[in-house]
């Protein structure tokens, strides 16, 4: 007994071929765009100025690293800023330490008995 093809699934060979052609054409366009952007970046490197019409992360960060200076300089600046901020934090801590301790102790030690807002007068538990 021969198998019959399902009637609900029509076969369109020309449609499948058009989809394949569209996919290959899109891939070619992508490759051309990549080549164009790479050429622009190489031109940028030769001229030494930044002109990136659209954001391409790897191109941008390579250009940024090239013009931002060495990582040692950046690390030294970050460490100096961090040390400066730590000194400010320690000074603020030393200046306000006693007042914070006094407020905390006053709050913990002082006892002011009050009835809870949900407590009903005259009801004992």
Sequence-ordered SSE layout with sheet pairings:
Blueprint: H1 13-47, H2 57-68, H3 71-109
How would you describe this structure to a colleague?
The protein has 125 residues and is mostly helical. The protein has one domain. The chain has helices at residues 13-47, 57-68, 71-109. The longest helix is centred in the last third of the chain and has 39 residues, at 71-109. It is flat. The protein starts with 12 loop residues before the first helix and ends in a 16-residue tail after the last helix. The mean pLDDT is 80.
Specify the overall morphology: flat
Q: What do the pLDDT scores average to?
A: 80
Q: Main β-sheet, in a few words?
A: none
**Tally of individual helices:** 3
Number of strands: 0
Seen as an oligomer or otherwise, the chain set is single chain
Structural class: mainly alpha
- DSSP strand (E) fraction? under 5%
Low-confidence stretches: none
Q: Give the helix proportion (percent range).
A: 55-70%
Distance between the termini: 87 Å
Question: Order of SSEs, N→C?
Answer: HHH
Estimate nothing, just give the exact number of structural domains.
1
Radius of gyration: 36 Å
Main attributes of the structure:
V-ATPase_G, flat, proton-transporting ATPase activity, rotational mechanism, 0% strand, transport, ion transport, 3 helices, mainly alpha, ATP hydrolysis activity, 125 residues
Summarize the structure.
Belongs to the V-ATPase G subunit family. By secondary structure, this protein is an all-alpha fold.
């Amino acid at each position: 007994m021969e198998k019959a093809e399902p009637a609900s699934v029509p076969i369109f060979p020309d449609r499948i071929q058009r989809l394949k052609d569209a996919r290959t054409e899109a891939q070619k366009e992508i490759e051309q765009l990549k080549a164009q952007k790479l050429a622009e970046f190489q031109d940028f490197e030769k001229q030494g100025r930044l002109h990136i019409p659209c954001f391409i992360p790897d191109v941008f960060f390579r250009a940024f690293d090239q013009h931002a200076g060495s990582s040692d300089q950046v690390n030294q600046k970050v460490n100096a800023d961090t040390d400066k901020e730590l000194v400010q934090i320690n000074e603020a801590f030393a200046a306000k330490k006693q007042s914070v301790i006094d407020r905390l102790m006053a709050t913990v030690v002082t006892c002011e008995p009050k009835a809870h807002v949900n407590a009903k007068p005259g009801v004992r538990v």
